[in-house]
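Quick check before the chapter quiz. The format below is the same one you will see on the exam, so make sure you can read both the input and the output lines.
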Amino acid sequence: MEFILALLEDMLLAAIPALGFAMVFNVPARALPYCALLGAIGHGSRMILLASGLSIESGTFLSAILIGTIGIQWSRWYLAHPKIFTVAAVIPMFPGIYAYTSMISIVKLSQSGYSGVLFAQAVTSFLKASYIVGALSIGLSLPALWLYRKKPRV
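Here is the expected output.
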């Protein structure tokens, strides 16, 4: 029960920035609730995958594939471009903490000189942020590559 409440809270809190970025990107007003819902679904699915033991990179990748697939389906139903739904929905999954940690470590390195611990933290956080952004971009584009093929799959 406690996990379900935490999941619902996570999904609600993820819907807010997805909705905000959808408004910044000038998404049509009729699509705003779907952007918020898709952001909540994506972040919630990543939380479930992380709780099941997957790494954050793998969970983000699979959640981005889910967001891309749902976005393509919704775009067919509502006659809109899939990016209307998907771009704002992946924003809550961007690795802000890892990027921030990496930048702070680099600033501390430049201020106080070389430290093995700070350097390792900077590199680790930078690589983790890079892998998450790569997982988001590749995961979001894979469903379109798969579903919009002109040639047979076999």
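If your answer matched, good. Residues 116-147 form the longest helix (32 residues).
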